[in-house]
Design goal:
This protein is mainly alpha-helical. It has three helices and no strands.
Length: 66
């Protein structure tokens, strides 16, 4: 079993020695635009209202149980 592992490792290393390089494509990321788009979607989807209702309800339950 270990000999198979060594042979497989040698094969993988041999592949890289022939110039096969895996690369990743990079693109310009505009962080502020992404944040603004996410925030707008958060507000328009109604999740902000649900968050507010959950905070108020949780605070009321906390007040009742303590």
């Amino acid at each position: 079993m270990p000999s198979d592992l060594v042979a497989n490792l040698h094969c993988n290393l041999d592949t890289f020695s022939h110039g096969l390089i895996l690369a990743q494509q990079f693109q310009n990321v505009d962080l502020m635009t992404n944040v603004q788009t996410s925030w707008t979607e958060f507000l328009h989807s109604g999740k902000a209202g649900v968050l507010a209702i959950g905070v108020v309800t949780g605070y009321m339950i906390r007040g009742i149980t303590s």
